């Protein structure tokens, strides 16, 4: 990786130019830098790295209807284009959403990848509904902390794994059953 001056990108139809205020550093960004994702996603190098961001809409392309210049937004980028580690990025409007007022730019920039992973698993794959019981592994991690909160918000009861240092955190997020994976998973299975 190196610092370079690059031209400001221009939005095409359905895209928007975002002035970046913060960018997330997700584990996948390190894997991409190390070339470990190339079997899944072969990138056209050199390119600007960075997968998630928050910022302010600077310019909109034709056909962008849900956003206006000046909106505070956060987004993941197109996996084949990346581009969040720069002053400006162009993103398709379908990958962008407005930031809730209570969120600041730094917190918003770390949400898209881990948050979408949790949301897609619980809502799109599991179709979780109120009263369901769900097990979330690694509850104190990036995906786990968001998944617990989303599952509780959807009305589910949550069981999760956490080491003793993560127990208070996962309980504060709403997990009802906490399994200490360092000690409890060594023995025979127990009913949750
Ligand atoms: N982050 C993303 O955006 C993303 C997106 C797609 C997929 N994923 C995948 O989702 C998984 C979790 O990612 P993450 O970013 O949430 O990781 P993370 O922030 O590093 O969290 C992982 C959690 O796993 C727990 N853990 C460690 N060893 C364990 C064991 N032996 N048994 C049970 N739990 C254990 C740790 O719990 P304690 O803190 O309690 O020790 C830690 O909190 C990974 O497989 C990752 O590749 C992540």
TrEMBL record:
Pfam families: ADH_N
CDD domains reported for this sequence: MDR_like_2 (cd05289)
Protein name: Enoyl reductase (ER) domain-containing protein
Organism of derivation: Streptomyces ziwulingensis
Superkingdom classification of source: Bacteria
Annotated Enoyl reductase (ER) domain residues: 1-192
InterPro entries: ADH-like_N (IPR013154), ER (IPR020843), GroES-like_sf (IPR011032), NAD(P)-bd_dom_sf (IPR036291), YIM1/Zinc_Alcohol_DH_Fams (IPR050700)
């Amino acid at each position: 990786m190196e610092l370079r001056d690059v031209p400001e990108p221009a939005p095409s139809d359905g895209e928007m130019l975002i002035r970046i205020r913060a960018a997330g550093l997700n584990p996948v960004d390190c894997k991409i830098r190390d070339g470990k994702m190339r079997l899944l996603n072969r990138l056209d190098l050199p390119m600007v790295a960075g997968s998630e961001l928050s910022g302010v809409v600077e310019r909109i392309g034709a056909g962008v209807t849900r956003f206006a210049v000046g909106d505070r937004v956060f987004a993941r980028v197109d996996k084949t284009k990346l581009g969040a580690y720069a002053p400006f990025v162009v993103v398709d409007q379908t990958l962008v959403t407005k930031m809730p007022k209570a969120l600041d730019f730094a917190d918003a920039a770390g949400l898209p990848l881990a948050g979408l992973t949790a949301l897609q698993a619980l809502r799109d794959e599991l179709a979780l509904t109120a009263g369901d019981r769900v097990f979330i592994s690694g509850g104190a991690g990036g995906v786990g902390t968001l998944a617990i909160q989303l599952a509780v918000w959807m009305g589910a009861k949550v069981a999760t794994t956490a080491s003793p240092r993560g127990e208070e955190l996962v309980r504060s997020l709403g997990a009802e059953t906490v399994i200490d994976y360092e000690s409890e998973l060594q023995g025979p299975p127990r009913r949750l």
